[in-house]
Amino acid sequence: MYLYSYERLKEKANTKQGKEFLGSLRKIYEEDYENKPILALPFSKFKLFHINGDRVLYQNEYFDRRKRLMLLQVLALADDKYLEPLEDVISAICDEITWCIPAHCLDRETGNTYKYYEIDLFASETAFYLAETDYIFKDKLCPEIRNRIKYSLKKKIVDVYENTIFGFDTMKNNWATVCSCGIGITYLYAFPERFNGIKDRIFSAMERYLVNALGGEGYCSEGFSYWVYGFGFLALFFDVYCQLTGDRPSILDREEIKNTLEYGKNAILDGGIFLPIADGGSKGEHNESPVLYVINRLFNTNIVLNNGREIEADTQVLGTRVLAGIDQKALVEEEKLGCVYFKTNQVLVRKKGGYTLVAKGGNNAEMHNHNDIGAFAIIKNGKQYICDPGVGEYTNGYFNSPKVRYSKETFVCSAYAHSIPVIDGKTQVFGKEYEAKLVDRNDDFITFDLTNAYPDNKADIKVTYKTLDNGVKAIYKISNASSVTFRFVSFIEPKVDGNSVLLDEMAVTNSLGVTPTFERVDYSGFLKRPKTAYIIDYTVEGCDISAEFDFKF
Fold first, then answer.
1. Going by C-beta distance under 8 Å and a sequence separation of 6 or more, which residues neighbour residue 196?
2. Are residues 459 and 429 in the same domain?
3. Domain that holds residue 27
4. Boundary-marking domain end, from 302, 324, 346
5. Model confidence over 347-360: pLDDT tens digits?
6. Any domain includes 1
7. How many structural domains is the chain composed of?
8. What pTM, to 2 d.p., does this model score?
9. Both 312 and 364 in a single domain?
10. Which of 51, 77, 315, 445 has the most beta carbons within 10 angstroms of its beta carbon?
11. Quick one: how far is CA 538 from the chain centroid?
């Protein structure tokens, strides 16, 4: 029996674990939606992206509808009283003039015209959600609602897709899989007779993503949350495809798949913190838990969050996946100490004695790039003592203007926000030509040459990060520079204690005898979430500078 059939999901809903899960979803629905009407999506918020670059106000209401849909999709399995509100939210979504968000359907050639039938990440996701809802409930839904779903899917997805070549047909990042897989699942559910006509196009996107976005090592330069999103949608598609067709394609046994599953395990660090690099290092952007259920089952692996699998409040999205795997047993593995090095991107992950060191080389034109060549992070007990500030608020300029993206105002993507030195008053800038060179490394140290990481640079710059039993030593050797500011960034407010700077229980000392300056930076994180980071700067003058900094617990 198909795993996402009404009968199979209802069985799961009636188990002890299923009832507990539905109980948590029912509470969310009662608090957030039961007495809340489904309001029209206001054009006044839709047009804000064009006016001032704001995405969040419209998208909050857009995604809220989809959360309501997926909550009701699960709750209606247990009680028919939720079928009518489920039909109401389906009707509202079908009525939307476009399923594409404003940031993705604005015609940049005209500057103020919208391509309402553009297909983006979220249009394809919406189609997937509606097609699956129709497939699960079939004759339990009103025939007219089923007709409206089919009509909307054909007009907004199928007719457009079959007559248009989209950007994601050549992209090599998460768009390739998320868009293609959402469309592919829609066809498998709602238009199976037409699937063979688009199958090669869908599979080509998978191939392009695996080879180009993940490469031989399986490393995702976009960041872990984007790995969950991009690779997760690949898994969602093949999970449905394999079950409905009975075919398990050879692509699922590729070396890139095996390597990227290892990346997924190694990118989950202490306390639910993910590998803190680029725009995908913060927890919670892309609903990791439900997708990991599918990845683990499809690939017979064991990737778990926080040393176990917890059902969190945000798992109402893709709740059918949680429900289907509700009795899946997660093998809780002991934390593995050791070292992983991703050669292509020059990223070291060293887990040692209760803490983790992350050090990054690479270049400054990577996917979802931050200007962070030579940056490092120290993580322990679920805290980033030396941090990457994570992902910022997505605005128009965040993706479309390097001047905006790498400004001090945007903060998170700039060199200013990363633990890297400022040389002769110059910080790192965007561009593939700005890159690190690996000098040497083993399991306990890594040395980068950062000479080519700065514009118009005459200095010779080398940095070594060395792991100790109780912390990390950073060693800098810089010649032919008139001044250097050694910069470190933390989420923890620094306090001075004699010759040390305390970041909670971690003490920072230096060989220079220099007293640092401090700056608090309040910035806008993902979905406008207010966040705070602290800049710690040690500035010295001189031609040849050797400096050691100890970060000890």
1. none
2. yes
3. 6-324
4. 324
5. 999 999 889 999 99
6. no
7. 2
8. 0.94
9. no
10. 77
11. 33
